Amino acid sequence: MSELELDPTLLETLRVLAQHDVEFVLVGDVAEAIYNEGGFVSGVAIVPGGYGRNVERLNGALQAMDAEQGIAGTPAVTEYDYRRCDLRELAPCSFMTRHADIDIDFEPKGTGGYRDLFDEAKHTDLAPGVRPLVAAHDDLERIARGSAPAAPFAQPPAALPPEPDEHLWATGDIRASRPTRI
Exposed, middle or buried: residue 162 (CB in 10 Å: 0-12, 13-18, 19+)? Predict the structure, then answer.
């Protein structure tokens, strides 16, 4: 058992996924909290296996949790009904459930998806019946780097400073000096 105490709603979300035999790797806030032995956890983030039967099981688990697209109590404005479409086409997406919010991404930036993360992931006991596969710490960092916004290129200043006088360059003395008073 893990020393980490998670909110019962988070545990129940993970338990329902396990009961529906959904294959996934746990990423996001919960995975970070496991490695950091605590921290703020707002919801569950997973990278599910993208093969057809697993996507059907995930869809069934979402329905069992009365899931609705949206996050933090705000329903998503969408013309898609996740129950009637392929979740792989909607992802990355977020759902509100009667337990906890759940973020789904089949291939987070910086990774090749479930199979890529599966190799280094480890099962972690969080509670009875809750033993998710948790992404390796290095993979979490890789996801964070892959999701980070691109750094902007340095911009030149709007106006360049004036060039020093030629006679100063000739003497090699380009130190700042005070004007002499007469």
Answer: exposed
